[in-house]
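Priority: medium. Attachment 1 of 2:
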């Protein structure tokens, strides 16, 4: 199993994550899992446009990530 460095939809970098195989492939996203078993959503580099929209999917600002987003046990500040 290859471990990757990925950036999730909140532009937060995750080191040594693995891509989770999903039963149905998604067109715009993929799921990663960190060493603690916490899963995050990542945007594919070539994410397609949404129907009836003129722009591609974009990642969000890290400040919009929910509190305790990084792990269920996270108690410190968010890291980039």
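Attachment 2 of 2:
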């Amino acid at each position: 199993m290859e471990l990757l460095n990925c950036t999730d939809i909140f532009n937060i970098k995750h080191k040594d994550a693995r891509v989770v195989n999903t039963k149905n492939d998604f067109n715009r996203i993929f799921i990663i899992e960190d060493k603690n078993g916490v899963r995050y959503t990542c945007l594919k580099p070539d994410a397609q446009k949404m129907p009836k929209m003129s722009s591609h999917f974009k990642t969000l600002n890290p400040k919009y990530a929910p509190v305790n987003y990084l792990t269920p046990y996270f108690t410190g500040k968010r890291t980039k």
